[in-house]
Amino acid sequence: MTTTIFGSTRFNPKRMIEGNDGGACVTFNGGRTWSSIYNQMTAQFYRIDVDNQYPYRVYATQQDNTSISVPSASEWGVIPLCDCTYPGTGESGFIAVDPKDPDIVYCGAIGSSPADCGALQRYDHRTRQIRLVSVWPEKTSGMASKDMRYRFGWTFPITFSPRDQKTLYIGGNHVFRSRDEGSSWTVISADLSLNDPARQDHSGGVLTHDDSGAEVHATCASVVESPHRKGEIWASTDDGLVHVTRNDGARWSNATPEAMPELAYVGCVEISPHDADTVYVAATRYKLADYQPYLFRTKDRGKSWESIVGDFPNGEIIRVVRADTMRPGLLFAGTETGVFFSLDDGAHWSRMAGGLPVVPVYDLKIKGSDLVAGTHGRSFWILDDVTPLRELAADQEDVKLVSPRPTVRAKLNYCVETGYAKTGINYGPGWGIGAATEVVELEGGRTDRRYLDCGENPPIGAIVYFWLPDDAEGPVKLTFRDAADKTIIAFSSDDKDAPFHTKPGTNAGLHRFVWDLRHLRPAKLERSLMIQKYKPLAPEGEDPSGPAVVPGRYKVELQADGKCQTVGFTIVNDPRIATTEKEFAEQFELLQRLFGKLSALNQAVNRIRLLKRQLADVQKRLDDGDKSLGGRAQSLVGRLEAIEGVLIDVKRETSRDLERNPPGLNDKLIDLVNVVTIADATPTLQARQLSDEIMSKVDGEIKKLDALMKEEVCALNAALKSADVELLGTGKA
């Protein structure tokens, strides 16, 4: 544990800040109480893994803390700490989720578990119990590594076979295999390290023995089995060697690149998912004051190697390299300061931007089209979609619309859908869920939500990327259509009334646009026609969104600089639900009717308010000889207000003033929308019955309004015309 305490003696010596491996803590009373580290995203992760659930979860071991499991998405719109679990006490080392059972997690736990060096835990989420399945569970603290039966490094490898999910490998100075969940182990290699006794004595030398297990040397740093060939296993060490076996461990060959520097920490062996003979190796020598990057590739099963550092910056040490699962030659490298990528198999490298802070990246995983990074100081980061890197050319010169990945029709919790504050600080997305965020205003009318003590959810909707080689000379437009080519909704960069996030970008470069999968919003109540006695402190509520599209095939069209491109994509249902196509259609049909009726209601209220304003103006222009006309106008106002008072709550003063008066029919329609959409399920019988009843009442009030317009307003207009007074408009029905 690294701790630094700063005290202020000039102003108040009782105020101190303490920095540790988990973050920073503050005291105002001389250390009697301290603030928590759980309000900051500063975890130091070593190695990570992902499972196959939906949403998938990310796992890691973290310095001076427990191992942790975090969902990649949450129904709360953010990722709160309460959704995390703690699968074991793994502080150090690798972590591996059972690919056939995500409730079972294996993690290295040197320094935080019995069995000391080589501590391996098997955690069961169902029972919340840890079973120690170490190769040799002997207490070794205080022992020199030369006196141990087996040596295991602080971050010793743990990995499952990609061919046989019952087979588990771990790496010490030997490679070990278990086929019974760690109940027994078989040694399948000789000592693969240099096994130099000079580097296996007491840490700290003869004066200061400090043998906690973190200092063990001459061990495996990476073990990986080939997904292409049975029996082929690669292993690298922390003292500069690479070995391979092609007969399941019966015989191993030294396959170390000739240019590998002496005593390099070879932390990653990555087998190409596209070519069985292609293997990548990442190494570093920063512990020996050598900060140069080392990356190697073989295309002939390790017979020969070449450096693929390319134009990597000098002084940028590399810890991990990953090959994309879809595009050959697309590589990602985790370094001491961030993530780099290459589109040409390592000839050229570029730093990835996108908001990732400057931080050591200890591990990377590719999950579908997501790139997951485990950092040593800034927790987990996920690049939500690497699809553009899979489709764009390195020298892309033309406009390019990237095919969106399959989009899950994700569902947020009702609280988030209806009550998440759009301004200022919000201390929770729902009742009892602690997760603070802040909405800040940026230049150009933009806003951004900052995540203060929680994780950020991936975008809810279809992510559309497009590339513009030059600044667009005209508007850029995105149009979304269904499988029958019927337009659902369109967005244009020149729409002056649209929020910033719904305007496609026009500058040269790569653009990301997120469609929330919604149809057009219903017609809204015109705020310019509302009469308010004062400006409320509470912000105005948002108008309801339109209904979400059902799972199926869709298209998106890009129009930019006279060019038009169209690509298709799929929207799929949440794999955890069993809702059928018919049930989705039934839900959508009822929602269309409810939203349509809400539009008609709002338009009717707008007509009423406009007519009331005109009548008020007419009454001001009538002279004393037109008292009868004034009385008729006032009577008409009363009848209009009677209809308005049924359609909406006319006594409501603010968006939060919901409990003083009975709801209007619009409130009931909106609440029914929430009733129907709260789950991906067919509407209940009673929801259908109530919907029909409320929509019928709305029709009745609109029928009264139409009758007034046809009879009373027309009659009053005739009388006003006779009196040479400007006529009333009837509004659009």
Explained architecture:
It is a single chain. By secondary structure, the protein is α+β, with helices and mostly antiparallel strands. Among the domains are: 1-37; 407-412 and 460-572, Immunoglobulin-like (Sandwich), CATH 2.60.40; 581-722. 17% of the residues lie in helices and 28% in strands. A five-stranded mixed sheet has the order 32-42-41-38-39, with no helix packed on it. A hairpin with a 7-residue loop joins strand 24 and strand 25. Helix 3 runs antiparallel to helix 4. It is elongated. The mean pLDDT is 92.
Number of strands: 42
**What Rg do the Cα atoms give?**
33 Å
Judged by helices, strands and strand pairing, the structural class is alpha+beta
Alpha plus pi helix count: 6
Strand content: 25-35%
Strand order in the sheet with the most strands? 32-42-41-38-39
Average predicted confidence as pLDDT: 92
Q: How far is the first residue's CA from the last residue's CA?
A: 72 Å
What overall form do the CA principal axes indicate?
Answer: elongated
Helix share bin = 10-25%
Low-pLDDT segments, ≥5 res: none
Major sheet summary line:
5 strands, mixed
Question: How would you summarize the topology of this molecule?
Answer:
Layout: E1 4-7, E2 16-20, E3 23-27, E4 45-50, E5 57-62, E6 68-71, E7 78-79, E8 95-97, E9 104-108, E10 120-124, E11 129-132, E12 158-160, E13 168-171, E14 175-178, E15 186-187, E16 220-225, E17 233-237, E18 242-245, E19 252-254, E20 265-271, E21 279-285, E22 290-298, E23 306-307, E24 318-323, E25 331-335, E26 339-342, E27 350-351, E28 361-367, E29 370-375, E30 380-383, H1 387-391, E31 400-401, E32 407-408, H2 414-419, E33 424-426, E34 437-441, E35 447-451, E36 455-456, E37 462-468, E38 477-482, E39 487-492, E40 509-515, E41 552-560, E42 563-572, H3 581-621, H4 627-647, H5 665-677, H6 685-722
Parallel strand pairs: 32-42
Antiparallel strand pairs: 1-2, 2-3, 4-5, 5-6, 7-36, 8-9, 9-10, 10-11, 12-13, 13-14, 14-15, 16-17, 17-18, 18-19, 20-21, 21-22, 22-23, 24-25, 25-26, 26-27, 28-29, 29-30, 31-37, 33-34, 34-35, 37-40, 38-39, 38-41, 41-42
Helix pairs in contact: 3-4, 3-5, 3-6, 4-6, 5-6
